[in-house]
Amino acid sequence: MLFFLISIIPLFLLISKSLPLKALPLWASEVRLLSILFWQEFLYFLVYSVKNTRLISSWVIEISIKMSSKRKCASRVQNVEESMEMSVLDLPDLALECILGKLSPSGLCNMACVCSSLRDLCRDDYLWGRHMREKWGRVIGQSVKREWEWFLASRKESSGACVERQSAKKPKRWIRSLSHVWPLSWIKMRLVEGGNRVRSPLPNNSIMSWYLSLESGKFWFPAQVYNREHGHVGFMLSCYDAELSYDCRTDTFQARYPPHGRRTVVIEDGVQWDRIRAPPVDTPAHDLHISDCLHDLRPGNHIEIQWRRNKEFPYGWWYGIVGHMEPCDGSEHFCHCHLNDTIALEFNQYTPGSRWRRTLINRQDHREEGNESDGFYGGIRKLYTKDEISTWKKLWPVEVLE
Ligand SMILES: [Zn+2]
Description:
The chain has 402 residues and is α+β, with helices and mostly antiparallel strands.
């Protein structure tokens, strides 16, 4: 319609001006035609401008609507994100400790990889102390802690050099390239975490480090093994010192027994948990244990006594029972064996008549007693707990020993 008017108006003006009968000069009509063309162009320009203005304004309005809707969406997303930002770290300390306390060792290790805050929390000695007691408490003694400290001291230099080498490494080129195309926050987070790992290695003196070294089998720890060398007949119902390394794949141990006189180191694989214990006393295998129970011993008591084949060998602990002295028949009303200076020790796993079945020791002044033929009997410890006694009974040989 607008275009129609624009086209009609100049024509109408031309006709109306051409109506006078008086003839005008030629140049005058040309000037009039030019002016008409000017106005036509001007009207076109005006309309075009108005039209463009409308387009632009509608475009601007559309954009502003879109932007406002985006702002609304963004604010909505932001609200959702704000509500999602509630992380486990926002929990009260006690609740967080309870959650972490429920995690297994592998769960704690995984959780420690999430961020630096959780890493520090998951390395806490309190958490790992519980796992240590639950899994290793029965076989870990005081001597293990000393051994662990020596182990740390021995590898301190090498691990220090290793950390320095890691720190000296520059970020890999492909990571730098990726940072141009991947979300910067993600890359930055990874780089920062990677950097933290280098800057904050697991402290060697932490219980977590100790636990993981035991699990990995890298740390050989001192303990004692019942019925060594797969229940060899020569060691039945005894318990010997050994160094042990855990194999997590089979959930068993490798035992390394110290040299036995001329015998070199003996290694035994596949040692089960129920054949291992922490050393009950802090006496090295080559030292005589000072007995503190000699005056308390009476028939029927369960004991362990040190014994070794000759003086070059380490002692092992052997299970036995206090018996009656002759001519006591064991009658409860007539027995005075507990008043005798001599104590009879019986090793009933051996057949009657065997030279290993019975021995006598002096209650008043017991030191190491014996000879090259029968071996040497050392210190005695009385067994007070049912657990210790039942452990020995479970290991009782199927057949009587000669
Ligand atoms: Zn008696």
